[in-house]
Amino acid sequence: MSAKIFHARAGMGRAVKGEALVAKDGFSARYDLDRVRGVFSRPEHRLLGKSYVGRVLVLDAAKGGVATAWMLHEMASRGLVPRALIFNQVNPILAQGAAFGGVALVDRFEGDVTRLFRAGDTLRVDPAACTVEILNRDA
Fold it and tell me: pLDDT band for position 2 (50/70/90)?
C-alpha cells in the first residue's frame, strides 16, 4: 500500500509515529482509563482492557472536564500516555491536557477518523503540518 495522507484542521505537539488503536467512542482520561496499569477500564468502552500506552488513539470525541488536563500530565510523568490523540472533535479541556502532558493532538478531518484509520495501522502524526499519514496497513 502506498502512503496516504489525511489533513486535520488543527494540531499541536511534536511529530510522532505509532500503531493505531481505533474505536467509535469518546475519551476521558478520568473515567475511561486505569492510569496505573495503562489500559482502558470503563466496562462500556469499546477498548476495554486494551493498552493505550505508546499507541496513537483514534477516537470520536473528547469527554470530561478539567481533571483530564492534570491527569494527562501526571500520566506522562510516569511514561503511561498515548503517543498521540486523533479525534473527530476535541474540546478545549482535552487540548489543554494534551499540551500539559506533551501528547501530540490533531482533530477535525474530512471524514470520520474512526473510519479513515484502522486498528493496527502504523501512523505518522505531524501536528505542525496538521497531517496524519498511514505508513503501513495490515491487509
Answer: low
